[in-house]
């Protein structure tokens, strides 16, 4: 078998979604990692702290000595077993630590002594992260974008998913971008969101996309924020407006926030707890916008959604959610959308319903 060499070709790593073996401590991995990375650490969090302290107080040689003391034969065998399983499953991958230095080379040495060859990434996590930050900044400034605008429930995300040259920002952020947009699965860290966004843009640039379509968003999607360079480019981008009749908007909103959510709650909490947890989610989100709604509207909506959840629990029907959804769209989201769009300004290239917008976008992308 040909020996694969260490690499610093970060672009190829991310373009090809190559498997990445992250040997940093778990606490480092949680703060920031890459979509195709798996954490099998050389040192656990406690060991990393002890060695870091020794390094600061007595230098590198003393830190290495302590590392080998902590890495007992039993621990080494545990690490080698886990790494070997990963390598056999992902033979085309690479390993890395924080700077591509001591930890990754020690891990590589132990792997090599076990009879396997696994190359490392020069510069490690720090260099790859720097590469993605720089690429995100450069592509944001050079890549033409078009924002898809539309009222809440108009199906902008459905349009984004249908277009090949598009970035699903809400998908990357794991949040629907509204007051009710929080998902059961946690949002990524800010760093992980930025990494995923940068990789998505790198892939679209490599595909020589004439323009990248993105959903019109505010600076925040849940608790993650759009990077500054991307946000500035996004604000300058021309728009296309998705126009969707109210009845379809109600159907889309019902599917997004109720019909498709209930199975996820059952899987997460079990049959007995799914409805109580869903009730807590819906009414809790409603409480967070109480001030903007005003007391009377909040009280009315609270009653509508409480009754709808009761009916869902009793019969399994979701139809009782429609009046509350329609009221929210008309009296909360639409006025907010009109205000934001009046402030936004900018060129509008096209207006139309879903199929018309998709057809226009595809013609525009192909240069017809």
TrEMBL record:
The keyword Transferase applies. Its EC number is 2.9.1.3. It holds the Pfam family AAA_SelU. GO terms for biological process: tRNA wobble uridine modification. InterPro entries: AAA_SelU, P-loop_NTPase, Rhodanese-like_dom, Rhodanese-like_dom_sf, SelU. It comes from the Bacteria. Residues 14-137 form the Rhodanese domain. SUPFAM superfamilies: P-loop containing nucleoside triphosphate hydrolases (SSF52540), Rhodanese/Cell cycle control phosphatase (SSF52821). The keyword Transferase applies. Keywords: Selenium, Transferase. It catalyses: 5-methylaminomethyl-2-(Se-phospho)selenouridine(34) in tRNA + H2O = 5-methylaminomethyl-2-selenouridine(34) in tRNA + phosphate; 5-methylaminomethyl-S-(2E)-geranyl-thiouridine(34) in tRNA + selenophosphate + H(+) = 5-methylaminomethyl-2-(Se-phospho)selenouridine(34) in tRNA + (2E)-thiogeraniol; 5-methylaminomethyl-2-thiouridine(34) in tRNA + selenophosphate + (2E)-geranyl diphosphate + H2O + H(+) = 5-methylaminomethyl-2-selenouridine(34) in tRNA + (2E)-thiogeraniol + phosphate + diphosphate; 5-methylaminomethyl-2-thiouridine(34) in tRNA + (2E)-geranyl diphosphate = 5-methylaminomethyl-S-(2E)-geranyl-thiouridine(34) in tRNA + diphosphate. Belongs to the SelU family. Monomer. Involved in the post-transcriptional modification of the uridine at the wobble position (U34) of tRNA(Lys), tRNA(Glu) and tRNA(Gln). Catalyzes the conversion of 2-thiouridine (S2U-RNA) to 2-selenouridine (Se2U-RNA). Acts in a two-step process involving geranylation of 2-thiouridine (S2U) to S-geranyl-2-thiouridine (geS2U) and subsequent selenation of the latter derivative to 2-selenouridine (Se2U) in the tRNA chain. This is tRNA 2-selenouridine synthase. It comes from Ketobacter alkanivorans. The lineage of its organism: Bacteria, Pseudomonadati, Pseudomonadota, Gammaproteobacteria, Pseudomonadales. The gene is selU.
């Amino acid at each position: 078998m040909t020996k694969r060499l260490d690499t610093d070709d970060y672009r190829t790593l991310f373009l090809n979604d190559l498997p990445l073996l992250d040997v940093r401590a778990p606490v480092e991995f949680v703060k920031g990692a890459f979509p195709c990375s798996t954490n099998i650490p050389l040192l656990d969090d406690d060991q990393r702290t002890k060695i870091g302290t020794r390094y600061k107080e007595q230098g590198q040689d003393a830190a290495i000595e302590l590392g080998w003391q902590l890495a007992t034969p039993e621990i080494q065998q545990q690490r080698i077993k886990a790494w070997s399983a990963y390598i056999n499953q992902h033979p085309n991958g690479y390993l890395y630590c924080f700077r591509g230095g001591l930890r990754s080379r020690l891990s590589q040495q132990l792997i090599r002594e076990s009879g396997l060859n696994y190359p490392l990434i020069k510069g490690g996590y720090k260099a790859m992260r720097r590469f993605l930050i720089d690429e995100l900044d450069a592509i944001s400034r050079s890549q033409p974008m078009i924002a898809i605008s539309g009222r809440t429930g108009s199906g902008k995300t459905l349009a984004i998913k249908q277009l090949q040259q598009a970035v699903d920002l809400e998908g990357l952020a794991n949040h629907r971008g509204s007051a009710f947009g929080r998902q059961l699965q946690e949002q990524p860290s800010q760093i992980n969101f930025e990494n995923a966004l940068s990789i998505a843009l790198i892939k679209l640039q490599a595909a020589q996309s004439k323009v990248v379509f993105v959903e019109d968003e505010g600076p925040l999607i849940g608790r993650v924020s759009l990077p500054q360079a991307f946000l500035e480019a996004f604000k300058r981008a021309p728009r296309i407006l998705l126009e969707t009749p109210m009845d379809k908007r109600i159907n889309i909103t019902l599917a997004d926030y109720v019909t498709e959510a209930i199975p996820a709650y059952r899987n997460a909490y079990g049959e007995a707890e799914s409805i109580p947890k869903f009730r807590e989610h819906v009414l809790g989100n409603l409480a967070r916008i109480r001030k903007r709604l005003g007391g009377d509207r909040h009280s009315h909506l609270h009653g509508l959604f409480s009754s709808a959840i009761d009916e869902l629990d009793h019969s399994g029907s979701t139809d009782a959610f429609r009046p509350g959804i329609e009221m929210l769209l008309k009296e909360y989201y639409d006025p907010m959308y009109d205000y934001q769009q009046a402030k936004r300004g900018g060129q509008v290239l096209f207006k139309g319903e879903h199929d018309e917008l998709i057809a226009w976008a595809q013609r525009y992308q192909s240069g017809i």
